[in-house]
């Protein structure tokens, strides 16, 4: 079992021109029972939203250790995540003792999300944790839990939505 005190917890947030949603995402991280060691925000913001995005980030710098990176790759979520992963790799974190969680700027987590994922990671000695999600929409304003399947195949992604997205990895 990995020693829980040795696990370095990183949260990656991709953002583009949605400072109000980023604020909600950061608030959900700030409210976690297990606060991450570092939050890396990868921005694809247009000039119009750079100042507003920076203001939102400044609101949380007393509660969270935040690094703000500009996306250096293709202008999309994949490019942003790859920018952050390259940064983490070049920062020489110990891969065996680093847990990375992904959060879209328009999503938020329950306050025990990181604690539960980290505990599952340690207790089950896995390399990936994919949690279920709670979807909030007009039909379910209070949220509806969307379970992920116990077993996933390539066909599941081609023919259905197995409820796996960036914010539950």
TrEMBL record:
Pfam assignment, any one: Glycos_transf_2
Residue ranges of domain Glycosyltransferase 2-like in the record: 11-145
Cross-referenced InterPro entries: Glyco_trans_2-like, Nucleotide-diphossugar_trans
Protein name, UniProt field: Glycosyltransferase 2-like domain-containing protein
Species, as recorded: marine sediment metagenome
UniProt lineage: unclassified sequences, metagenomes, ecological metagenomes
